[in-house]
Queue: 3 jobs
Job 1
Amino acid sequence: MDVLVKGMSADQGLLVVGLVDTDLVERARMLHDTYPTASAAFGRIISGALLLSSLLKEGQKLMVQVVGEGPLKEVVAEADWKGRVRGYVYKPHVHLGLKEGKLDVGRAFGNGYLNVIKDLGLRDRYQGSVPLQTGEIATDLAYYLRTSEQIPAAVSLGVHVDTDNAVKASGGFMIHALPDATDEVLEYLEERLKGVRPVSSMILEGAGPKEILDEALGLPYDIIETKEVMYFCPCSKGRVLDALAALGRQDIEEMVRKGETVEIQCQFCKTEYAATKDELLSLLEERGGAEG
Ligand SMILES: [Zn+2]
């Protein structure tokens, strides 16, 4: 089971979040048929979105999008307040040579941007965007938190892809320095984090999110939330027809003229939907379609 744990340090100065999501990242890898470098990028972005989603309130969701000039081009993950995540990889068949024994996610993205779009409900949207610092995602997310949300934070993400291309470990942790954090604690943490092992190594040895936080922090903290996280796509035929209706009347009429069944695949979960000519006709009648 994939689990996220949220906690608060005893002095209330640090908000900490630990995550192990190996099973859902392996599921995402299989669904999207990603090659190892793309799998590592996808897994880190999925984990990053889940870590950020731990701070959402009921009904809210967010999207982490990384766009670069490199071969991966674009990877997206959406996560909601319940810990449900889905995503897609624009170019899944990317695998580059290793860099110092690690999958070279930074080079696969190249120069680019990390965007965070939050849907806070009631049409309240927030968007933050930062240029990629390393493209390795964890440092980019920390940079985003510091510059866009003014939160001093440390983020670590790790994905281990095995020789059979399967994801054998995925997870991470995030530490926010709250206004009550003392300089003493922050200095301690900065030193401590320099020596922390990669989270993928901890997970390969069987660590859960709590063990990851214990090892990273080395400080007492109280767990305030534990929840299961999962890969989940809420798509349905109705939603696909809604999306078709949004294409506009002319496009739908064109499909009807061709008289073919329209095949649509959900980009997040790869479910195939088919809209028949009759369904297209009733879309035109019932919903009218948007103008143009
Ligand atoms: Zn779907």
Job 2
Amino acid sequence: MDTAAGSRSELHLISFPTCPFVQRPVMLLQEKDVPFEVTYIDLSDPPEWFLRLSPRGKVPALKTEHGPLFESQAICEYIDETTEGSLLPANPYERAHDRAWFQLASEDLFVPLYLMIGASTRKDADEQGIKLKVTLGRLEETLYGRDWLSGSGKHFGMADVACAPFVMRVADAKARGWFDLFEGFPQINAWADRLQARPTLRSSVPKQYAEVEQKGLEDRDSIWLREPQRAETGR
Ligand SMILES: N[C@@H](CCC(=O)N[C@@H](CS)C(=O)NCC(=O)O)C(=O)O
């Protein structure tokens, strides 16, 4: 067990080191300077006690003083509502907008990026890259005239937290010379730079992140480890 900040915390996250869904509540907790504890589990052999907390067997799960919670969005909103300040906009339309992008990021950004980075053939990687480019085109339009994705676009908020793990992984893939998904998207690049300037973007992953990520890609026989040159869709 790792106490991330302070002790006697009432919030206890169940995690896997490379999971982008867990990174969201960790970033939120760090942004709000709220103490919490973390326990890492082996997702390939999840302990019995974890399956009682998380009915779908997925991380993150959060133990609270009231009982367990699962699903990163529910967890983030619970944390946001029960701690000081709020990263969810007060305006109902803007709050709904943040929730919609939270959901979109899970399904249309995290999943295809995971499949693209772990793909064992160039063809499979390219297919995911094409899907991502379509979604990124929509995001580019949405970000026009804004500093942030959240709310009115003036302040860092929940929708930005929701997408931050994706932005970090795209930046890492570019740094490794694999692909640059944000090429040709100036609004996204400016927003990604703002996100990368926040210390919590990197502090929200544990020190074993790179090692576990590398091992996961080796196990999946990732094309990027074998042939790291850029794919057609990433140019
Ligand atoms: N919709 C879930 C997705 C969580 C998720 O897919 N977590 C992955 C790890 S990154 C997991 O626990 N996978 C284990 C499994 O599917 O058995 C959320 O937002 O929390």
Job 3
Amino acid sequence: MASPGRNGHGTVLVVGASGFLGLEIVRAFAQHGWEVRGLIRDPAKRGRVRTAGATPIVGDVLEPSSLLAAASGADAIVHVAANPPADRGGTDRSREVRVDGVRHLVEAARSGGVRRLLVGSGYWVYADQPGLITEESRVDPRGESRVNYDTERAALAANRPGELDVLIVRPGMVYGDGAWFRPVVTAIERDAYHVIDEGKNLWSFVSLPDTGTGFFAVATAGRPGEVYNLVDGHPAAWGEFATFVAQRLGHRAPATITFGSAAREYGPEIAHHLAANRATSSAKLQALGWQPKFPEFRSGVSEVLGRRSRASPG
Ligand SMILES: NC(=O)c1ccc[n+]([C@@H]2O[C@H](COP(=O)([O-])OP(=O)(O)OC[C@H]3O[C@@H](n4cnc5c(N)ncnc54)[C@H](OP(=O)(O)O)[C@@H]3O)[C@@H](O)[C@H]2O)c1
């Protein structure tokens, strides 16, 4: 359990606070009475981070000096910074933001007396495999998931239980009104969404609100040096998921394409991820006392799509 902070609960620094996961992690900690600091690069994003419950702090995970005051005296840091747009010279700094970002945050944690570092990764690091995936299952990080895996390794190398506890969270497919889910909805609405070979392979999902509470559970009850899967515990076939979304939107079920044409269209790594079997267990996280509000995708997706149609009627 993280030590109680000055306000009787705790203080957390969320790095990547303006992002899809970051904002929800801010909300979860704030709703539990924690003092939340939200690191943002762009001052224009202050408002949304404040509304979610954090005090915005402008900084950059690639600029170590900007992290020192932000981290100082916090009980925990959560690193979900990712996906920076290419810089002015056109360089993609995604790997630096994740992997070097961890190293800078470890330094900031040590100098600021922070005892817990949580690093968000993703369940795509697991190998395509039959059977239920646990945290002990085989990994085979490819493409972008290689970056998340290297981020995990860099973080775990800094784990010193009692001094700096490092914990890894591997969310599954996080659905909510943003990230990958929004383009899926748009493509289905245009009858332009496809699944590979009927989409019989199993994916694992988790709703955005449950993602926030999952990170909170790991921060407050997780064991140092451990990895936790963050999924709803009810894997479902990709095609079943996409067909359900299409039905809810009043569109026809997505068409099927072969693996070969998907590899040509999206690239082999993405096609591999789409077609992989990753039925994943959340038993380890649930043993910490975490329970998803949406225990299977139908209830959660209905909620997201209902909110979306109320926001833009007709
Ligand atoms: N979305 C999913 O379904 C999902 C599922 C499982 C795992 N994950 C993993 O979770 C992580 C976060 O994903 P996401 O979907 O939340 O991404 P996102 O919406 O793109 O958010 C990334 C955040 O990182 C910030 N950031 C980028 N570069 C930074 C820098 N140099 N310093 C400080 N902050 C920086 C961005 O700030 P700006 O707004 O200023 O660019 C943004 O707030 C990724 O590693 C992803 O692989 C995501």
